[in-house]
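Researcher: I'm preparing a figure for a lab meeting and need a structural model of a single chain. I don't have an experimental structure, so a prediction will have to do for now. The sequence is pasted below. Please return the structure as C-alpha cells so I can convert it later.
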Amino acid sequence: MDNMNMLDRFSSIIEEDLKIQLKNMAKDGEQYHPFVGEVLRSLEEYLLRQGRRIASSSTLIVYKGYASQIDDRIIRAGSGIELYRHSILAHDDIADAEMFRRGGKTLHKLFEEGYDEHFGIGTAIFAGNVLYSLSLETMLQSGFDGDKLKDVVDLLASGYKDVNESQALDLLFEYKTPTIEEWSAMASKRAASLFKTSMLAGAILASAPKRDLTLLKDASRHIGYAFDIQDDIIDTFAQKEEYGREPGGDLLKRKKPLHIILAMQKDPNLASLIEGGADVAEVDVLRIKELIRDCGALDEAKSISRQHGEEAKELISLTEMDQDTKGSLIALINYVEGSLDWYR
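Model: Understood. Here is the structure written out cell by cell.
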C-alpha cells in the first residue's frame, strides 16, 4: 500500500465508523430532549467535515505496525480518538474566537444562530464536554481487554489535562511576549500531547514492547512540534482558499507562534506592529508578513520544524514496527516538511 494512501484509507474507515456512532448518539439525545438531539446532530456535521484525520489515523497506523492488520476494535478506538480531538477543538475555537473550522462555522457560531453569543458559547462548552465523555465511552466499548483500556483511558485523561494547560499558556502569550523556552514548554503539551495520545494508544492496544513506547513517546513530541510550527506558519501565510479562513488571524489576536517570537527578537520594530493586535490594518498584516520573511524568522522556523521532523523519523526507524508502517509515518512527516516550502 502506498504510504500516504494508508493514511487516507484509515481516515475513510474511521469516518464511516464515526457516522454510525454519531447517528446512534443523536438518537439517544433525541429521546432525552429534542434540543439535545439537535446539538448532537450538529456535532455529527462538525466531526464529519472533510479533512485528513491524521491523529486518529495515526492510532490505526501504529496498531497495524505491531498487530500486522487492523480490526473492528482498533477502528472503534480510532473513533474515540477522533471524538477526543474534536472535544479539544470545540473549546480551542471558543478561546481563539474562531468563526470557521474546515469550511464550516465553529460550534459556538453554529449554536449562536437563532439565539445570541452567550448561548452559542455556553452550548459549545457543554458540547465539547460531551465529546470528551463520548470519547472515553467509545474507547471503553472498543472490545480490548481491561488492562489495556485502563492504560489508554489514563493516557486520554493525562493528555486532556496537558492540552488544556498548554492552551491556557497560549492565551497568556496574547498578553505578553514569551521567550523561545516558554513557547517550547507550551508547545510540548499542544499538538505534541495529541500525537502522544493517539500514537501511544495504538501501540498500547497492540502490546508494543516497552522500549518502543518510549521511542514513540519521544517521536510524537517531535512530530507535534513540527506540526505546530507548520500550522502556525499556515495561519499567517496561507490564502483563504487553502485554509478556509482569513490569513493572518493569529497576528490580529496578538498570538505568539514561534516565527513571530523569532521575528520580534530579530527586528524590534516588529513588536509595536504585532502588539497592535485588533488595531492592525490589512496593509500592516501584509507588511508584517514581509518583515517576518526579510528578517529570516520564517526560514528559521521552517528549519526548526524540519529538525524536529528528522528527529522523529530517526526515532521511528528504531522501533520494531513493520517497514510499511514506518514508511507511512515517515511519509506523513515528509508531507509536513514539504508543505513548508509552499510559503516563502
